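Journal club prep, shared notes

We agreed each person brings one worked example of a sequence with its structure written out as tokens. Mine is HTH-type transcriptional regulator PuuR. I'm keeping it raw so we can talk through how to read the token line rather than staring at a rendered picture. Sequence first:
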Amino acid sequence: MRQTTHIGKRVNKLRKRKKLTLKNISEETGLSISFLSQLEHGKTSATLESLKKISESLDVNPSYFFSEEDDDSRSTITRNTVDTANLTENRFIYKNLSGDMKDPAFIPNLIILDPGANRGNNFSHKGQEFLFVLEGTLTIEVDNYVNVLYPYDCVFLDSSKPHYWFNKTDKPIKFLCISTND
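Then the structure, token by token:
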């Protein structure tokens, strides 16, 4: 299934389960009803920023939209986590590594940013994040303070503070983002 279609179906299913309308989500996120409808029907893709807004309004971690549905919770080994089929038009890969764990206490994600990816506005949401750079040079902005992280550098941040990450280099960046919603 195409990534854009999968994300849209997950948004639609969760929105309906919570008995919310497109208008409710639009008012809470500032995203247009038209955009949200097109996303749910797989006719457009979402940026990481818009997914963060949608996930906050639906009270889930953004990785929810990338995971497979499964009622059983079990320990799993995830091999070969990088799948270029997850590459979106926005030049990032956001891979949930929680496997088949139901309602995990934290969400581990592998994020790969292509050169120049994810330029945009800061955002904030509930919870905390731990970023650990595996490859490349990651520029982060937290509460209007900019810093650069290199391989094996990490940062632990309060997600309620405005924050964002960027790839200002000409090479891809790989990093782990471990987050909570609490």
